[in-house]
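[Meeting: bench + compute handoff]

Bench side (C.D.) handed over the final construct sequence. Compute side (W.E.) agreed to return the predicted structure before the next meeting so the bench team could plan truncations. Sequence as handed over:
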Amino acid sequence: MAASSPPVQAAHAAVSAAVWEVRLLGGLSAVHGSVSLARFPSRPVAMLLARLALYPGRGHAREELIELLWPGVALEVGRGRLRQVLSTLRRLLEPSDVQPGSVLFADRQAIGLHPQSISSDVQDFERHVRERSGPQALRAYRGDLLPGFFDEWVEDERTRLRALFELTRTRAEEGDQAQAHAGYPPAESVAPALPSMHATAEAPIRSLPAYVSAFFGREDEQREVHEMLASHRLVTLRGFGGSGKTRLAVEVARSAPGFDTVAFVPLSECNDGGQIAEQIRNALRMDPSSEDAATQLHAFLADRDVLLVLDNFEQLVDSGGSAIVEDLLQRLPRLRCLVTSRRSLDIDGEREIAVGALALPEESMGIAEAARMASVSLFIDRARGARPDFALTERNRAALIELTRALEGLPLAIEIAASRIRAFSPQEMCVALQRRFDLLARQGPRAVRHGRHASLQATVSWSWQLLTPAQQGLVASLSVFRGGWTAAAVEAVCGTSAAAAQCEQLVADSLLRAQTDAAGITRFSMLESIREFAEEKLGAAAPELRSRHRAHYLRVATDAAAANRAVPDDELPNLQRAIESAVEDGDPAGALRIGTELRPYWEAFAMPPTVLRHLRKAQAACAPDDPDLQAGLILLALMTLNAGDIAQALDDAARALAMAGVDPARRAAALVTLALVTWEREQRAESVQPLLDEALALSSGAGLTVTQADALRVMATVVLRHGSRHADYANADALFAQAEELYRRAGESSWAHRVLLSRVGCLAGLERHAEARQGLAVCEQFFAVRASSADSIRVANMAGYLESVQERWREAAVAGRRGVQLAWERHARLPLVTALWNLPHPLAMLGEVAAAARLMSFSARFWETNVGPLSASDASTIDDVRALVAARVGAEQAATLWAAGADLSLSEAVRVALTPQA
């Protein structure tokens, strides 16, 4: 990598010897007198020191360092970051007893270290290599360069230095052999990697598997394991089969510093703890002898710094294996063990690291961003082994993201799926995953070679066989849950006591995962692969368990509604499953009942499309006279409106009104719903005012405070949207204020703040901007605390409107893009289209005219086609944007952009909105 090379500044006269000794091989540290640096304030500080120490005396261009430390960052941003990091490093390297400027030199172009002030083990190693001092070079090489750092330039240097080390070792071994043939004793050197039982206690040994395939991700885990091994003698990488424990352990062991013996010990074929010592002896390639294996090992390893990778230990936990490892650790004080296992060894001093999923892409990621995710990178790499031309493209991006997420970031599942790319495209794999175990099975000779990793089903089956019958029964029962669940839910649904302790053991066996939610409650979950396997074991017990599951989560929804609060977001997967299973088991009214009880949740977070589809099925299957149907239709009308299907929402609202009869509560609620949907469709006050008047009269007379507030809220919306005069804003604000007060009186704080947010728009129209901003801040804080995503979309859209009114175009664009992102992620179609509508004007004012034209054209067409007619105010907005675009690029180019926008799909429009113009 190129670097500028200004003349090296002379070190300060007070400095006559190296001030800092920097260690780069086997780990990063620096020593100056009694001061030792092993931990650094930040990763960039550590990386800057490492880069400069590799080339002392060389001036590194600031631009070069910025690109190395923060690839792709804007230059000005990088300059600021580099200044901060350099300042921190200077404070570390030039404390009070070191002359300022004697270690680091820096000017406006370059940064470096004075060579007289720095020494490093890399310098020593390379000097010995140049001088052909093989033994000294080999002693200096205490490990690979910067273990735990995986930047490209580090990998390049690590590879170079490792190759230099291997070459030096080979030359040393060849020299020993030549001397031996000549009758001379061997010179001091490193022994061969494959020792005999006669190897001396000083002979270094490295016996690790050599992988052909590339390794992806796990940077944080590698760093964590390195740090854990540095301070603990028994580290267990615990995780489900196929999670990548073995590969992670080998990669860590390959670069682990400070060991003269590192060996990989495969235990998958062992079924008794007594076989462990023999397997270790085999891994070290020691000659068998009449001597007991354990005794031989104790003697051979007693004076060595040893790292043993004990792989696939789970089946030995209950057969004496843990006791064997504990005995080895007690007898060999310089021994450290890195164990891979699906189960904990349960030994004093054991430190566990749970090996989880690879990093998963988000649905909204573009090609470049998705390709950086380890799960996607792994799939692409392995797929190219079967189909060299495979690539991530815009055509398969969404399917590949969906696929890797469905595979849960499990390396084994990803590798098997990728191996089938000859016969299945990513889109076809997503469909085939409905029969997960059929797809995720290796084909041909590979199936034999990989044993229990030949298929995902075989991997799950291995873990299943390690369970007791009682544990198998519990895991099968737990398959009724989705997402996460609590111990209390297990006791209610599965009819078991001591659920917490039972689930705790299954966590230790890598069948369950555990984490603490926002309320401090432990929630358990399992991989979908395990759940599907266990569900097949339920048999005749399945219907009763599903019924108990529905009953429990109906209580969860009812209790939340009674307390006037939304259920926790963590409960949503189980509530969705309860709705789904009610439809499957012929209880459509039950599905509608759960859905209706969850209305506060849907209003706060929006209803996912899958739930909407299941509730639509329930409504279609429900008896016409079922009492739950009318409330279900009102809910469906509101949620379908939010999803953008206004015609269907109108039909639902009209049916709900027809079913209401003369009951004031049912009729008033249906009238408000029909008025709201009709207004969104027609934008005609005369069509909805009679409905609202009747609803207001009924709710006021019957003391229905919330419905009365609902009616006033919709009335205010009609007044506000019907015109843009000062009086319209004032009248709308007065109606909103009445509704806000009624909501507060009824304890509906969320709706009170939603109405306050609407008042912000009125205050902006009245040019009372300070009050509007104050109200917006109150709403933003309220909904942020509740993490209400649907309301966060509304806040973002209102913020964009308020900034536009005050001609703060950059802030308006930021808020508008935030609204688009949130609405897209939550599948909230109507708020999404609103956000897309509000964005073009700020973009046009900022000069992003191509995006502005395309988005305005798309939004106008989409609104008229899917929502309703445009108002005069809407038409004026379109004209303004079109004029701004034409003024920038000319009428002909503006027309071309406008035509392109009309052809966009919704997802393409979102992509345009979220991609800032260069």
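W.E. noted at the follow-up: Confidence is low (pLDDT under 50) at residues 1-17, 176-201. C.D. will use this when planning the next construct.
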